[in-house]
User: Fold these one by one.
Assistant:
Number 1:
Amino acid sequence: MKPVALLMLCLSLAACQAPPAPAADTDISFANPLVRQRADPHVTLHPDGWYYFTATVPEYDRIELRRARSLDELGKAEAKVIWRKHASGEMGAHIWAPELHRIDGKWYLYFSAGRADKVWDIRLYVLENGAENPLEGEWIERGQLKTGWESFALDATTFAHRGQRYLSWTQVAADGSKGTNIYLAKMDGPLAIRQPAVLLTRPEHDWERRGHLVNEAPAVLVRNGRVLMTYSASATDANYALGLLWAREDADLLDPASWTKSPQPVMRSSEGAKQYGPGHNSFTTSPDGKTDILVYHARNYRDIAGEPLRDPNRHTRAQAIGWRADGMPDFGEPVADREVASER
């Protein structure tokens, strides 16, 4: 191969590689909890310099957005209600796990909802807004995002990789077998997936089957030549924990054999830090892009009276992600609550 051709090939391959992990400042700290009584947090750091935040509210009846220039300011930012549940029919109960994404010049908000008359008939839905600022403009209902079969479904996330957009979500298998699994499919635009979907993970380990058989809440980060997918498992009490799948960044992501699954959780409850049930995370970075940050929810007490889903005190928290020498993430233990963040 001629030197010029070899150089061009090397440049082309470098352009296609996943971005390396930032040089993480794992000493960075936050005023945790960032936002009280907000579960399933999703944070987007937009090029306009704002962190946009949405999460499940404890009443399960509406979708809020807020924004701030730093993660620590999110708790004090004004929360704007951009949509409320329907009084009847679909999208009438259990408004859960909203995620905000900017796709092709518009904002899309993916969320889960049950029917007012059948609250556990939960499916995936989408809102759309063409404004530059998602706290402005009109949010339009785009209806149910069909997955290919009808069953309990929630926790949709979307990501683009190597020129293709994907959707990953949680659903009960088409055969009705017990438990929730995580699926992946290519997308044809922001409102539809391309069939067929593939099963990536189901609850198989003991730590994924405590209280309930659960794999849910996928979140994706591409770093160091890998596509990393975190997910949450078990009941939403102190048993809740964070798992991890990964695939090579050049692999066929729709081939389940491309993915490796950690046999143990990568983050779990910490008695020492008084943090319980960490999970349902999203990823963001520091404003300068140099530090990857895990945003997740957890409670600061173990014992819950009654059904955990009715306990409102899953608070949004954040902490920097460490990186091992082999390029894999080190999430560590959930950090203890603190009132004032350190300088950074």
Number 2:
Amino acid sequence: MPPMRPKPAGKPLSGENPLHVSQHCRVLAVVNQKGGVGKTTTAVNLSAGLATTGDTVLLIDADPQVNATSGLGVAEREYTLFDLFQEEATPEQVITETGRPNLWLIPASIDLAGIDVLFASRIARETILKQILQPLRERFQWIIVDTPPSLGLLTINALTAADGLIIPLQCEYYALEGLTQLMRTIELVRQHLNPNLTIWKVLLTMYDTRTRLAEQVESEVRKFFGTKVAQTVIPRNVRIGESPSFGQPVIEYDPRSRGAHAYLEFVKEVREYGASRSG
């Protein structure tokens, strides 16, 4: 039996904490306005997996449900992403150690749920996260943003700040439902806010090899997105479902599980794709 939830991490980043100066930072947003597709699980395991390679990683929990924060075993914090949006805290106050080498977190809070209303009349409200991340690009090699299951202001901010997108898609009948709206939103952001935004990888999740439906969905998605679809697929795996309740990524909770192996393979794909774009 894997160990119970570790002692909650959450020590704020001190001024003395030696973060590496990054030569080239990649900001990736994990997006899908449809809930229950494995978005947060992907963000957490991608971040943790990249950190195990020795790269410095900052995971940003931009979802008011706070699942990425709790999924790393980080307790409720005094300062969160909401305070950065409100300019009531500095990055040093908000960036939190996770108790894992090379992996830091900007936690979320339920207060983020009111951002759309709170900033309704704010000028340049779509670029707030981009401005926050600008100085942080020099300190991390990867910044991963977990977004809420909506196309509201938080997601638009993530799209505007990102270099690339990771789109998890569940291998079920309604996998492509709403995808047209997501693609339209991405295109609008490209036209008006972030012309360099690209889809890095579409990741098939909750893949059940016992069903023909999974094969059909995979076929349709690969036909639609072509080479953007990751070769790795994430299987239905009980360990993936269990790990958040222990405050751990599945690659840490049960490294020998099929889910952990799949996510580590996906991490390799993302790193290789990033390297191919560096030239």
Number 3:
Amino acid sequence: MLNFIWIFFFSAAFITALIKLVVLGDHEVFTLIISAMFSLSKTAFEISLGLTGVLALWLGIMRIGERSGFILLLTRGLTPLFSRLMPEVPANHPALGAIVMNISANALGLDNAATPLGIKAMRELQTLNPTPDTASNAQILFLVINTSAVTLFPVTIFTYRAQLGAANPTDVFIPILIATYFSTLAGVIAVAAVQKINLLDKIILSYLGGFSLLIAAIVAYFHSLSQQQMLEQSALVSNVILFSLVIVFIAGALYRRIDAYDAFVEGAREGFQTAVTIIPYLVAMLVAIGVFRASGALDLIAGGVRYGVRAMALDERFIDALPTALMKPFSGSGARAMMVDTLQTLGADSFAGRLASIVQGSTETTFYVLAVYFGAVGIKNIRHAAACGIMADFAGIIAAIFVAYWFFG
């Protein structure tokens, strides 16, 4: 899928530029394309280089949290919920532990730890699957929850925003939390409707009710504030929560007699390696998007959507962030590059820049997760997994747009 998208960007750029040259007599369009290729390859490297320090910082902090037992604590807290949502999984089966560990790692932004745990969980669930080439109910629910991106601490988004000049990189924290809640809730409801899961079960209801009350309290509090107060309070709350998390991790390390400094260095080393690893991917996608934009193809698509939005007399500012939203279900690196392009072109603190950040943090790459997790266990018949995952994505994107207008409109 990513290969198709990458080739499409270059092909569409070439066709558009050729039409502009032959039909419109635009002799500058190919010069602009070549200039974009060189400048954006340099930009991608500079962004990756600038990310090194921040990635090293956050992955170091997250490694302390991992070593101090924070994920284990989340696992114990969430196990009763998943044992009810997946009644076909025995109470003490290792799949439950792997599932909750994966979701806990995702919630904390530990992507590198989450994927291996997710594959392990899918393999454990496969041992209970009576038809190995067809996804079981438990596997589908697990996958949809993954694609809905249960994100509590989207540190990667903060990292990119900091690198690209945001005055307060964490000001999208509360909006992302709200949007990812709606994405996850929509995914769970969609799967429950198909699989006839009783969401009114007292344990399930207590968990969902607790999460819903928390989000409702956040919404009610911020709804009572003016927009300026909302921005200030959102930034304050975000920063207090994030630094408190650091202190909790360190306190946990002290309690368990873990060498916090050594854990931090180990995680920071991984952060450095991650920054180096993403260079070729970021170069590939940013250059592809750059030539697509320089040719005028992106403007043509956006112009068509903008025309329809204007015809309905709606605010059109969200359109500039749509490329990130449309790319997200298909490619994580593509969506990330779209977000970076928006942040760089329009500004990290622009409405579109903030909305792109919220979208990036509130949904996951559905088809990538489908391919990796189901591919790892040889499943060919995915049943309703893709449909429910897309429903979760759609709910997250719509929620992200509304929340962005509420906080930053």
